[in-house]
């Protein structure tokens, strides 16, 4: 009887061994699948990250180019829209020019002496004690002093 029990125990042990072996094989397969899946996921993640980085760099470069272009356009517009005397309306443009031309011509027409500046005329008026001299312009001082 002991032999029968021994045989039964051996048979049960063999069966348990096979079960354990199958369990170990199944565990190894599952671990291999997990490793393969993890590797695939890691590759997909790194590919997605690289793609996202490329898109970000491309978007940044595009934005920088747009900003530079807009800045250049604004600078060009500012340069062309700056108002010079030539771009002012006709009446505004001619009045100061006419005054300057007339004054210069009058100075040139004076006889012998070189035309005097306002400061020089003011000094002469000061010596002669001319009233209201500080409020007079160059032409007024010249008239008041009789130099015109």
* Distance separating the two termini: 157 Å
Round the Cα radius of gyration to an integer and report it.
52 Å
Q: Number of helical runs?
A: 4
The largest sheet is: none
Decide which structural class fits the backbone. Answer: mainly alpha
* Beta-strand percent range: under 5%
- Pattern of helices and strands: HHHH
Report low-confidence residues grouped into runs of 5 or more: none
* Residue-averaged pLDDT: 74
Shape: rod-shaped
Could you please describe the fold and organization of this structure?
- The chain has 148 residues and is mainly α.
- Among the domains are: 20-66; 113-148, no CATH class.
- Helix content is 80%, strand content 0%.
- It has four helices and no strands.
- The relative contact order is 0.04.
List keywords for this structure.
single chain, 148 residues, mainly alpha, 4 helices, rod-shaped
Write the layout of secondary structure elements.
Layout: H1 2-81, H2 90-109, H3 118-128, H4 138-145
Summarize the structure.
Helix content is 80%, strand content 0%. With 148 residues, it is an all-alpha fold.
